[in-house]
Amino acid sequence: MAKRTLTKQLDLIPTKASLDELREAAKSCKNCDLWKLGTQTVFGEGVAHSRLMLVGEQPGDQEALAGKPFVGPAGKLLDNALVEAGIDRKKVYVTNAVKHFKWEPRGKRRIHKKPNAAEIAACRPWLDAEIAAIRPKVIVCLGATAAQALLGKDFRVTQHRGEFVESTLAPYVAATVHPSSILRAPDENARHEEMARFIADLKKIARVLQ
To answer: Mind listing the pLDDT tens digit for each residue in 138-185?
Structure first.
């Protein structure tokens, strides 16, 4: 069943497609059931052939409504961190391991729910196609879901945070926390400390981009 699903998914992706072609094709993706739940496909965004690609977990509520990645609170925090690290946000390509918002209702709100392994695998061909189209110098996985999607289920961000790891995906590949984890810090001091660590991770990235 999984093999047939993957074949169907690969058929949907144009060969050697541009980002615009991929984005258009992804709108009709029904490779897993999240298309029934998500408002719309939220594809990656940024300049073609960007030297830096950031990969998060999945779009949030605001991203699903806007159809753009990293435009909610975590995205704003990421923008600020990139500025502090000396990285031009306009030159960065941002995307997610999963392209639909997975959520569960809580009153009138849609609350984030972590995607499962099958949903992540269903979206992997899109992520691979984005990487092939962009050919970035550096890929940074933001959070455990993105890191395990690209670097294997045994990869632990807590053990290898900020380290460059060997990968065929790009010349430089690293992982750090997802900016949403900083927003969930228990108090202002903890948020300040976590933000400083996150900026330090991004400064390492900035150095190899120079």
So the answer is: 999 999 999 999 999 999 999 999 999 999 999 999 999 999 999 999
Residue 72 DSSP one-character state: S
Give Cα 203 to chain centroid, integer Å: 19
Structure tokens at 101: 């918002």
Residues 132, 153, 47: CA angle, nearest 5 degrees: 25
Separation between Cα atoms, residue 52 and residue 177, nearest integer Å = 16
pLDDT at residue 120 tops 70: yes
Angstrom distance (rounded) from CA 202 to CA 131? 20
User: What's the one-letter identity of residue 150?
Assistant: L
The strand pair at 172-176 and 164-165 is best described as: antiparallel
Total structural domains in the chain?
A: 1
57, 142 Cβ separation under 8 angstroms: yes
CATH (domain of 133):
3.40.470.10
How far apart (Å, rounded) are the C-alpha atoms in residues 138 and 171? 6
Read out DSSP for 24-43? HHHTT--SSTHHHHSSS---
Q: Which domain holds residue 22?
A: 2-209
Dihedral (CA of 50, 51, 56, 61) sign: negative
3-state secondary structure of 58: coil
Distance of CA 62 to the CA centre of its chain: 15
**Residue 109, SS3?**
strand
